[in-house]
Amino acid sequence: MIGYLLLSICLFQTIEARHGVGKPPPQRKWMTLHGGQPEVIASGGYSGFYPHSCLAAYDLATDISIPGTILYCNLHFTKDSDGFCVSNINLQNTTNIDGLDPKGAKTYNINGQDVTGWFGFDYTADFILQNVTLRQNIFTRQGMFDGAPIVRALQILEDKYNKPTRIWLNIEYDTFYKKHKINPEAYLLENFHPLPEFISSPEIGFLRSIKPKIGNAKTNLIFRILEEPAVEPTTKQTYGSLVKDLAMIKSFASGILIPKEYIWPVNHARVLQPATSLVQDAHREGLSVYASGFANDNFLSYNYSFDPAREYLQFFDNSQFAVDGVLSDFPSTASEAIVLDYLLNDYTMYSPLIISHNGASGDYPGSSDLAYQKAVDDGADIIDCSVQLSKDGIAFCSDRPNLLRTTTAATMFMDRATKVPEIQELEGIFSFDLTWSEIQSLKLGKFVTLLSFLELAKQKAVAGLLISIKNAAYLASQKNLDVVATVSSALSNATLDKAPKQKVLIQSDDSSVLLKFKDNPSYQRVFYIYEPISGAPAQVAQEVKKYADAVFVHRDAIVTSIDNFCQNFTNTIPAFHAVNISVYVGILKDEFENLIFDYLSDPYVELATFNSLKVDGFVTDFPATANMFVRSSCATQGSPYVIRPVEPGYLYVAPPPITEPPLLSTADVVDPPLPAIAKNLPTQSAAGSAPTSGPPPSPPAPKSSSTSSVTVGAEGFILAAIVALLTVFT
Description:
GO molecular function: glycerophosphodiester phosphodiesterase activity
Signal peptide: 1-17
Domain GP-PDE: 38-338, 352-630
Radius of gyration: 30 Å
Protein name: glycerophosphodiester phosphodiesterase
InterPro entries: GP_PDE_dom, PLC-like_Pdiesterase_TIM-brl
Strand content: 15-25%
Largest sheet: 9 strands, mixed
Distance between the termini: 45 Å
């Protein structure tokens, strides 16, 4: 516990230096009950990161959330009637109490259900406050900060700057506590002067009892509604039936706190259903509506594209209603959603390019027609095509030549499975071993030829397009396919090779490929650096400059993380900017599993971090999220709420040594010249159209070298088929 306290002191001093009280957002009319902006309610503080209800969680919530954020305490009691904040009446999973008193487990009937565990009211306040510590009770979250002391409700009346806070106390089991000679109502009336701004309970009897006793206090009494089948202790009716009688609820409460699914139902397929009329009905009765159950690391409806801010926006501003507040484990994301909602603008300041990765591949199968259309609709500046070739020379867009994992190839062409060590270690079914008609028979969505892609880019008038070329040397030497010539011809036929209105980017991890496009000043050449690096010596950066105008690096080439916490920013961006090379970073994804802990399961924090480091482009599966960020003044100083970039070591300092990736070397940059193509290679009249000559020659017989393609044996077919079928159909 001592170590935890020391860490917390250092952290809070750092936070104090970083964050001041922001100015309130501009005034606007919301569709809430009284027209004000929705409230942000921090559930147990910032419980998405720290253990629920610890002091660090409450302090982080006030520091990085919108001014006026409300601190929510789920109030429970000791044997001697002292109140403390904890997420559950059963302390077993939320604290270390089972280790302190291994034989202390008891069983109680709580609201008709037998619950076995450890309970605060079996212990004195001295024992609870001096010995028991909190731990993260959602085991998919990191537990680095377990060991935080229990917090009394009275401790959060002021923040660490000794300024008053806004408090919400939830009395969860009034009837049960009274049976054990503990009176929550008396505790509130005797200890809080004035009473907290919000008091809630899922028990009607408690709210009816305390209402006449609060007098002129500006306290909002809120009826907390639980899941529909649960039974309310006073009336013995289900919450699902009680919520239909809003006039009755108005007789003892000024508002309701209700699971978000009552408002926007989500079906078993995680698809959003039409909204209910609950919010409008409650507002007509004069009831405020606060929605609960928000967390960035929940499995969100697919309608939100894994973007937690979009879920909040669905409840704040949907042209029908706005809830009056949200109870969230991640209050900073709720805060940014409020500001994102009305600070969208046409930006004129510096902003990174938004470059799609296989279109909007976070929402639709990558490189499909649907993915490209959504990328355009979602505001991508640059749409991309990673060019693959069929056996008969048709160029099309696909993330990889191996079709085994992304299509139904395993069900139709397992006899074509081969190993190609130059491309990947495992066997696959590769596009260059299938004809275009065979590829079109696979299920993906709709395959997009390079020709169709170029036509789409011109028709939609996007700012630019990116063509990615990989495996050119292998295709030339082993398959007699010239991907460079195919791309060049397609761009020429589309009149994109001479002073095009749209920017054309040519990307490759092979410097010899980029060299082929050097003589056309209309193209920007992008060198793809797959491996993590920590920077580039000046002479190596100059070597890159011979081949490329920009580099595309992965996130770990910019942010060094240990134990999934940011520890350092590399010198990659400054090294390339010093020689006037742009830096694009990717692949950015909204799913919280792809984010280091510092980003608080929020893709906007990652975007803000890279933006602060002056990257020149975001390569993303979710262009809509990047577009929302760059169009919002949330990304700029002077905004009423600024999305803060992370600082290395701010949340956690890893023990030394901190090992960084190697520097880029000349050997990583310079590739051998591309091999020649056989003279009888068919050429295409346009990428995506049929070859002008007859069928291509058969590829040369496999060499004895271990680097040549090898056909998989029958046993491999069976195993690969099983794996592939599981991949495709699960």
